Automatic annotation (TrEMBL):
Molecular function as annotated in GO: metalloendopeptidase activity
Coiled-coil zones: none
Domain M23ase beta-sheet core: 210-308
The UniProt record lists the keyword Signal: yes
One Pfam family named in its UniProt record: Peptidase_M23
Spans annotated as Disordered: 91-121
Signal sequence coordinates: 1-24
Name of the protein: M23 family metallopeptidase
Classification of source organism: Bacteria, Bacillati, Bacillota, Bacilli, Bacillales
Keywords of the record: Signal
InterPro entries linked: Cell_wall_metabolism_enzyme, Dup_hybrid_motif, M23ase_b-sheet_dom
Length: 338
């Protein structure tokens, strides 16, 4: 198959255009800013701006995930707040003093810098000032769901950012907390399945491009479960993946499950799921018109992508799968000992 076609199909698979594949940076050290501390700050900013705390949290989280994807170009300005802005954006493009901290003159020159902690200075290294600057820029348009989306659009001019931030906000609202790190192995541990590391190897069938994911071989009908807390972003047929589901987590990763024999009928696009929730069943659908199946042995193709703002990069899910599998075995053992 021609390379451009493979790329176009890959874009369909992920529901978006894919950039070149890259291995993920090693899991970053524990982010500063305890959830309780951040939760309090979001509540405070919600009171000041009229947004919901979940919306403020989602704005901050989106910026945090962009930094995770591009740490070099988006260095941390405060100690935990996500927002990255240049000195010119902060103080105003025409401001002769690019280090201006005076809220009144920053406002005069159209900078986004604000004083959120009440010390009289709009300080680009203060978490609260950063948070307030971002939240108040978005809140200018109002706080209804539509107004919020408009505010986010005006801030980023990027439809993906609008989608992400609304997804994060929904996750915080549904689960009522910031810590949504839980995980599950995509099929029940202790059942009959096998997988190995195949990152970047040529596909055994199709041969269309290097393999972006891990294949978990199992019999038809084994439950396929969500690996994370997330929002269903895509659900339906695509030419390669067959019946597939794509789930977005609060860390801005896209979890892709392909070749299912079917979906849990109660699920819809836009719904939230938690780790371990059955989303469908192992099958062999794909590589043809809707309904095509049986062109290869049944397996789950599991892929994971990180959103970098305008593009998504696949990274090797194998180490995560091993980690989630181990964690689940451990939890099972602990349970049986009780
Ligand atoms: Zn695969």
């Amino acid at each position: 198959m021609k390379k451009w076609m493979a790329l176009a199909f890959a874009a369909m698979l992920a529901g978006t255009w894919l950039g070149p594949s890259a291995h993920a940076a090693p899991a970053d050290a524990k982010e500063a800013g305890a959830p309780e501390q951040r939760r309090a700050a979001y509540g405070q900013m919600a009171l000041l701006t009229g947004l919901d705390w979940e919306q403020v949290a989602a704005l901050d989280q989106y910026e945090r995930t962009l930094r995770k994807a591009r740490p070099k170009t988006r260095p941390k300005l405060g100690s935990w707040a996500g927002l990255y802005v240049s000195t010119e954006q902060w103080s105003g493009m025409t401001n002769p003093d690019s280090d201006d901290r005076d809220p009144a003159s920053i406002r005069f020159f159209g900078g986004i810098g604000r004083d959120g902690d009440g010390d009289g200075k709009a300080d680009r290294s203060s978490d609260i000032d950063l948070l307030y600057a971002q939240a108040s820029a978005v809140a200018r348009f109002g706080s209804s769901p539509d107004d919020f989306s408009i505010g986010v659009w005006e801030f980023y001019h990027n439809q993906r950012a609008v989608q992400r931030i609304n997804q994060f906000s929904l996750l915080y609202r549904t689960f009522g907390r910031l810590d949504l790190d839980g995980s599950a192995f995509p099929v029940p541990v202790g059942t009959d399945y096998s997988y190995r590391s195949t990152w970047g190897t040529a596909r055994g069938w199709g041969g269309h491009r290097t393999h972006e994911g891990t294949d978990i071989f199992a019999g038809y009908g084994l439950p396929v479960r969500s690996t994370c807390f997330g929002v269903i972003e895509n659900m339906g047929w695509n030419a390669y993946g067959g019946w597939r589901i794509g789930i977005r987590d609060a860390d801005n990763r896209y979890h892709y499950y392909a070749h299912l024999s079917g979906f849990d009928k109660s699920l819809r696009s836009g719904m939230t799921v938690e780790p371990g929730r059955t989303i469908g069943w192992v099958g062999s659908s794909g590589y043809g018109k809707p309904g095509t199946s049986g062109k290869f042995p049944p397996h789950l193709h599991y892929g994971i992508y990180r959103d970098r703002g305008m593009i998504e990069w696949a990274f090797d899910p194998y180490p995560l799968l091993r980690q989630w599998e181990k964690a689940e075995y451990k939890a099972k053992k602990a349970k049986s000992r009780r």
